[in-house]
Amino acid sequence: MPRYKLNKDKSADDFARLFTPEMENGGWLNSKRNELMSKKKRSILGDDSEGFKNINDLLSDINGILDMPMKGNGVDNETMIKMAQNAYFTLIDLCDNYLIGKDGEKKSPRTTAGKERVRIVEEIKLFADKDIKSLMVQNFQNEDLKGITLRNAIGKARTRTVTLDNSNEPRKYVGGAASRLLVLNENENKGNVGFFSNMKVMEKGKTMEDAKQFIDTAIKQTSVSKESIIEILNIIDRSGYKNVCDVCNFVLHPQMRDEYVYDDSNKFADEIYTILKAAMGTDENIFDEYKVNVTSGKANMNARNVATSRVAKMLNSSLIAKSEMVNLQKQGSTELISGSVMDKAEGIEGATLLKRHAKAIITDSSVERDDIHKELKETVKDLITGSFQKEMADLQVMDYLCGQIDRHSANYFIKTDKSGNFIGLQGIDNDLSFGDAKQQKNSYVIGNHGRAVVNDNEELTIPHMSRGLAMNIQIMNEDMVRFALHDLIEEPEIEAFCERLKKLKIAIGKELVKDPKNSKLRMDDEWNEDTLNDFLGADSDSLYNNKHDETSNYLDNMIELFTFAGISEAEKELEELKEELEKMKKNK
Prior knowledge:
Blueprint: H1 12-16, H2 28-36, E1 42-43, E2 46-47, H3 50-66, H4 74-99, H5 112-137, H6 150-154, E3 160-164, E4 173-174, E5 181-184, E6 194-198, E7 201-203, H7 212-221, H8 226-239, H9 244-252, H10 265-282, H11 289-292, E8 298-300, H12 301-314, E9 323-330, E10 337-343, E11 348-349, H13 350-362, H14 372-383, H15 386-402, E12 412-416, E13 422-427, E14 445-446, E15 450-451, E16 465-466, H16 467-475, H17 478-485, H18 491-512, E17 521-522, H19 529-536, H20 554-587
Parallel strand pairs: 3-9, 16-17
Antiparallel strand pairs: 1-2, 4-5, 5-6, 6-10, 7-8, 9-10, 11-12, 12-13, 14-15
């Protein structure tokens, strides 16, 4: 929570007095330092330096300033902006002082925790540098700013402008109807291939009440019998649902279907389901509470993706493909298109890789049909390295922090070596993260594929996690999170994140004080066959093996659930190939 609960009737001058009257004379920094000298604290990671504590305390003050409502009065606004400028300049000075050693050279800490603090301060300074530019050049006299907070007013400073190359060649796009993305080349995206997504903000109350137009489209396109069409339409009609989202999630979702009388009914249900899901993914006026994981307000799907990327960067992790808020602009044009860009992920899509291995086993004449799944599971298990275990576990921890509810094998990429071994991964498509969904009591399940890592007793329930990530999480705090994410995520979502962070830090703290032999925290060289078996064969009485759809954690998910999906997709692809060959024979 912000340190100061602001009264909207309070003026900027009133708020300034909460800090110190010396601010006008440039004495605020000395005042803050004197105040902090008496706050010597010791954390489980050792003594924080005075400089690091100063930065953390000042971040709390700045978060309070950013929550101040702008006024229609230009004089009040000017006072407020001057206060914010002083705070930011002080923050930048504190960061510079912290990053420079006594010898005038860049600080080089000896401990891992010290190095991580330096890296975090560097990140904070980057954000501060961007924000101060906005505070110095933006016009804050506009009447339209009245009522919005200062954080909203300066949020645009963190948005990058991407200028498209002039070319006569047609632009490339990827994805289907539900997620059409413009491909940016290396020149346009800081040396990396990127995928631009138009801004998509879903707001409560903007729902599509009638799914009939989409069902009519499916009827025109389908090749199934009239009996199958009538059967599915009757099921939809009997359900009483008219909302696109409800029909999709509670009537036609594969896990919600009843047994059908006609053979083609399942095919037609799939066709309608696909069309409705595409509509839900492309029409910003359809608010799906189940999908966006929020029960009120609005959800900026692009911002969630970017927020997850920022959290990963704060934790010094490359597990999430980098994403940024951007404005797209053609050369010679002043028009800006708002959206986000995600860098191309390293590796091969998990679902695609599992399908490849499944196809190889299905077409192997020496493997009996009943043994295909068992064979695929053993094949995948043999390819899993220690580094892949570590990254899969870390991704689950990070997803828990960010409230990710839909991490499946189509939204992470697997890195392989020359022998095909799984050596790492990177998550993509994080627009279903954050939200305000809560972990249910006595359950580790969150959302669709979400897996919690902390139980009701604030203990780690995942079999293992990396000690390095644990240390970095302990250094992260609520003020850092608010400062890094304030331009992206709504207040209820930040509150939910900070609550999960608090629980996770307590759970990690309990592991850090244990003897390393008994702790769940593993060093990079401690991931092996034994740790893999812990993930795949957990004690049935433990919380993390309280199975849902026969899964317990991300590694178990991949082995148990996603191998089944890989086989299904491989069989479908092989069947389509067989039908294609049959057609070719007939046409000869």
